[in-house]
């Protein structure tokens, strides 16, 4: 399945939920408790009925609250009403998680996405991806914004926080449920490992287990187990092929390499895959520039875009900065925080990773020079670089 193919229908053998034709006249799947209310200042999306007036799929836990003192904009109305990619101006974004301050690898991704937008006369946004609230560090979002500002990378529109956008994600989950494209799952990690072991399948180290479909409706569903999470029912014919501006043609069979993936977690939090797809569409993102470690997420996101009838952005996955141990620099392995006392030095190091010349003037002059260079040859280094 390519990125330009029509929206994926319900998987074969999966019936859409019954209970009346008009979903506004019935309760949705998993509606044993009130739906999460809309975040302050966020209008409910127009798709279907107002989710604030009905109970919703998996709505048994409250939405995470917004960061204190910050009001996030709504990010647009129903993303399905936006024009498709190519019919609107370039809109890019940088979407860090506030699990710690930015480091050298983060700056490479931020600079690449900013340059790609500015070289094409586009708009560049910053979105704080704080949907995984247990991993977020208080104040890290503000530190990240300060680091970006010191480097001259400032969002062209108000910053958005994912923790304030639960209503949008719930609406998308409801839409998928009404199309029979999601189902509740009662499996724990141990249950999945046991099921795979019984099939003679052993997961390699550092590789996520492919979900065996235990709780799929055609396999008997929950079989008395309480619902823990909600999974996307990946169609059996799900080889996704897309053209990456950095990596060239890419492909992945999501059914065999990933399996049915989680959209709402057992702890009630929204999974990254659903949140990023909904937010990219709601903000009209046309181009996604990010690190190569996220490339294998792209096929899942394309499948969700198709299922929700949303446009697929253009993707570019830039090289990673590796530590001396050969592992990707990350906040989890205590990467050194970005030094904003010398922003030009930090920017020059990031620019080198992107095959751009060293600049010794000012931050503003360097960024202007690199925009011109990117416009002439907007291609990053082919491989990851060790520091």
**Total strand segments:** 12
CATH names the topology of the largest domain as Rossmann fold
CATH H-level superfamily of the largest domain: HUPs
Rg measurement, Å:
21 Å
Separation, N- and C-terminal Cα atoms: 38 Å
**What is the class of the largest domain in the CATH system?**
Alpha Beta
Estimate the strand proportion.
5-15%
The pLDDT mean sits at 79
Q: Pick out the low-confidence regions.
A: 1-55, 60-87, 380-387
Tell the overall outline: elongated
CATH architect. name of the largest domain: 3-Layer(aba) Sandwich
Helix content: 25-40%
Our count of helices gives 9
Number of domains: 2
Strand order of the largest sheet: 1-2-3
Structural class: alpha/beta
Largest sheet: 3 strands, parallel
Q: Could you state the order of secondary-structure elements as H and E? A: EHEHEHEHEEEHEHEHEEHHE
Structural write-up:
26% of the residues lie in helices and 13% in strands. With 387 residues, the protein is α/β, with parallel strands linked by helices. Strand 9 (287-291), helix 7 and strand 10 form a beta-alpha-beta unit. The protein folds into two domains: 88-177 and 269-386, Rossmann fold (3-Layer(aba) Sandwich), CATH 3.40.50.620; 180-239 and 249-264, no CATH class. It is elongated, with a radius of gyration of 21 Å. Mean pLDDT is 79; it is low at 1-55, 60-87 and 380-387.
Main attributes?
2 domains; disordered C terminus; single chain; 12 strands; 26% helix; Rossmann fold; three-stranded parallel beta sheet; 387 residues
């Amino acid at each position: 399945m390519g990125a330009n193919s029509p929206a994926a229908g319900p998987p074969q053998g999966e019936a859409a939920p019954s209970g009346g034709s008009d979903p506004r006249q019935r309760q949705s799947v998993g509606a044993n408790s009130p739906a999460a209310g809309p975040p302050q200042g966020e209008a409910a999306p127009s798709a279907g009925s107002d989710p604030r007036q009905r109970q919703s799929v998996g709505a048994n836990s409250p939405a995470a609250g917004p960061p204190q003192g910050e009001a996030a904009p709504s990010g647009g109305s129903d993303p399905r009403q936006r024009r498709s990619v190519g019919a609107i101006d370039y809109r890019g974004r940088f979407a860090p998680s506030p699990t710690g301050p930015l480091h050298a690898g983060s700056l490479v991704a931020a600079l690449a996405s900013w340059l790609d937008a500015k070289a094409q006369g586009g708009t560049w946004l910053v979105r704080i991806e704080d949907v995984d609230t247990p991993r977020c560090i208080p104040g890290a979002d503000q530190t990240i914004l300060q680091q970006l500002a010191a480097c001259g990378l400032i969002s062209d529109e108000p910053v958005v926080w994912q923790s304030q956008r639960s209503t949008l994600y719930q609406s998308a989950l409801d839409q998928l449920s009404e199309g029979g494209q999601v189902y509740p799952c009662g499996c724990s990690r141990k249950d999945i490992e046991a099921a795979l072991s019984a099939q003679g399948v052993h997961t390699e180290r550092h590789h996520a287990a492919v979900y065996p479909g235990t709780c799929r409706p055609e396999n008997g569903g929950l079989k008395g187990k309480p619902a823990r999470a909600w999974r996307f029912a990946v169609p059996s014919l799900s080889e996704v092929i897309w053209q990456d501006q950095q990596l060239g043609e890419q492909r992945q069979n999501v059914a065999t390499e990933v399996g049915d993936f989680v959209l709402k977690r057992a702890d009630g939090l929204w999974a990254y895959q659903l949140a990023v797809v909904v937010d990219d569409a709601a903000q009209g993102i046309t181009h996604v520039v990010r690190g190569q470690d996220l490339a294998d997420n792209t096929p899942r996101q394309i499948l969700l875009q198709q299922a929700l009838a949303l446009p697929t952005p253009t993707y570019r996955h830039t090289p990673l900065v590796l530590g001396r141990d050969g592992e990707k620099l990350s906040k989890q392995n205590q990467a050194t925080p970005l030094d904003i006392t010398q922003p030009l030095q930090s920017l020059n190091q990031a620019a080198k990773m992107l095959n751009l010349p060293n600049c010794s003037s000012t931050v503003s002059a360097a960024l202007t020079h690199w925009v011109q260079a990117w416009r002439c040859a907007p291609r990053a280094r082919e491989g990851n670089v060790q520091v």
